[in-house]
Design brief:
Layout lengths: L3 H6 L7 E4 L3 E5 L7 E7 L14 H18 L6 E4 L3 H4 L8 E5 L12
Antiparallel strand pairs: 1-2, 2-3, 3-5, 4-5
The structure holds adenosine monophosphate.
Adenosine monophosphate binds next to loops.
Length: 116
């Protein structure tokens, strides 16, 4: 099954691509939650972190290096940013093709709201 992100990688769907190399691609989130909201995606369709294997180590590492490069290019590296990977139901994952959210451009506040 081809994820929506695989379709972007294959250029079958449009996206605002900000970075690409041999292992990962990054594009702006379609529904941004911050002034900068970029998704960093391995080109290999790994559904969730649970499905990653030792063979994926290079791609997983590259996602972080790409995040740092994009943060620098977007001018948010010094002020800071947040990287998030949602996994399965409790993590709120909606697209089952592993991705790293890069969020920044404003103070993002606490990582999670406390339970009432
Ligand atoms: P997650 O909840 O971690 O699975 O996040 C999925 C993210 O993908 C959401 O923030 C969506 O807004 C985003 N998204 C879904 N479809 C697209 C698309 N075609 N282009 C860019 N971002 C998308």
């Amino acid at each position: 099954m081809s994820s929506v992100f695989s379709k972007i990688i294959a250029r079958e769907l449009p996206a605002d691509i900000v970075y690409e190399d041999d292992l990962v691609i990054a594009f702006r989130d379609i529904a941004p939650l911050a002034p900068v909201h970029v998704l960093i995606v391995p080109k290999k369709e790994i559904p969730t972190v649970n499905d990653a294997s030792a063979a994926d180590e290079a791609a997983l590492g590259r996602m972080f290096l790409a995040a740092a490069k994009i943060a620098e290019a977007e001018g948010i590296a010094a002020d800071g940013y947040r990287l998030i990977v949602n996994t399965n139901t409790h993590g709120g994952q909606e697209v089952f093709h592993l991705h790293l959210h890069l969020l920044g451009g404003r103070a993002l506040g606490p990582m999670l709201a406390r339970k009432p």
